[in-house]
Amino acid sequence: MSPDELVYLGILAASVPTGVLFRHLSPPVKQGAALLLGLSITLITCGVHTLHSLITVLGTWVIIKFSWKAAPALSLAWTFLYLLFFRLMNYLPFDLPQPTPFSNAIQLLLTLKMVSLANEVHRYHLEKKQDVSSFSKSPVIGGLLHEPSVYDIISYSYCYVGIMTGPFFRYQTYVDWLQQPSPLSLPCWQPCLARLRFVPVYGVLFLAVNHLFPLAYVRTDDFLERSFFFRFFYMFAVFFVFRMRFYSAWCGAEAGCITAGLGCYPQGAQSKPGGGPTTHYNPEPHTPVQYDFTTVQNIDCYNTDFCVKVRHGMRYWNMTVQWWLHHYIYPSAPFRAYALRAGWTMLISAYWHGLHPGYYLSFLTIPLCIAAETAMETSVRARLGPRGQSAFDWVHWFLKMRAYDYMCMGFVLLKAGDTVHYWSSIYFIVHVTAVGCLVLGRVVRGRSRDNKNAAREEETGRKKSE
């Protein structure tokens, strides 16, 4: 593990017992302590680069303060343009210190928070203007009771919980955490240990497989001399290492949220990852209440590996960010077709991750895979019996995993040349398969439509002759 990864690991490990201490604090003290701890982590790991995050926060506050009506669009433009400046500092003619990986991680999560905050404040003013007391028609239940002050915004931005690793959570979730009436009565160690139980396994597998299949080997000339099956198999191992790394990190980050009590809501509130409660829940007096931490769940390891479809795989990976994309990016896509809207969302997601061409090559392969699987489902699977559909789903799952293996290579190799170099070494097999499935699905659907039209015409002719 690199020194940076060890620092991340240390912060994650320390956040778990620290969270328990925060359950004993009153709301004002909790807010100040969380800000002080998060700001200290930022200053220690980022140094002067803390200014990037502070400028982003203050810029968003100015937007919210003076133009709440346009805040959602302006905050998105402001934070994304600042991301561009932040990432192009290597190429600017000024002698500026280059950002660190830690400042990049903080900047990524802060971008999500500021855009979400602007949308929450916008909604608050609309509801206030209309004098609406119920939010039951909104896709996200619960709204702000007042416009946050600059201190509130800074406290939310630098809250120590998940400051580098996530998960993303809305400002309202943060407020609910501060105002919990009896945090010591909420579940703590049982859900925390349940979330951490497989982390040692993920960690050992990550270290072992990463040692056996180093990514750097893909960039060597010797790699091309290996057999096609070896080169094809290598992406299995790389994606496995990638998954184990993030499974460990995200489960650890969720454990830190759980011990602090952040994102704890009654199960009846039907919370969504990132968004929080989706329905009002008023339990009967003296009725035992079951709680969950779905709001801060960032990964569903089982369904990530074993769901059947490409589109479903995205839902179970980085779940809080997927919620953010679905609510703030997907609805504004300039297309109506699902595959094209998904493509737009993936383009924005790639930009959020960075400017490396590998991100774009990988993310923009997803819409092609979605279009291919949709075509095969509607034209082939729909015509099969139960056993045939079961066999189809197994093949579909296998191809889904290979598609993610394939796209992961672009995500980790980063450079366009390295990504195309690897993809060409396995003959662009996923692109070719996806295009083949898309064409086959449309041909089969076209023939089916022609057969139905012919049958309809034959039936019409028979009735006329009678």
> How many extended strands?
2
Inertia-based shape: globular
The major pleated sheet works out as: 2 strands, antiparallel
The secondary structure category is mainly alpha
Radius of gyration: 25 Å
Helix coverage percent of residues? 55-70%
Strand content: under 5%
**Order of helices and strands, N to C?**
HHHHHHHHHHHEEHHHHHHHHH
Distance between the first and last residues' Cα: 81 Å
Structure in words:
The protein has 466 residues and is mostly helical. It has a domain at 298-466. Helix content is 67%, strand content 1%. The protein has helices at 3-22, 27-46, 50-66, 71-87, 101-130, 150-157, 171-178, 189-196, 199-212, 221-224, 228-260, 301-306, 310-315, 319-328, 338-353, 357-363, 366-379, 386-413, 416-425, 429-465, and strands at 265-266, 291-292. It has a two-stranded antiparallel ribbon with strand order 1-2. Residues 133-140 have low confidence and may be disordered.
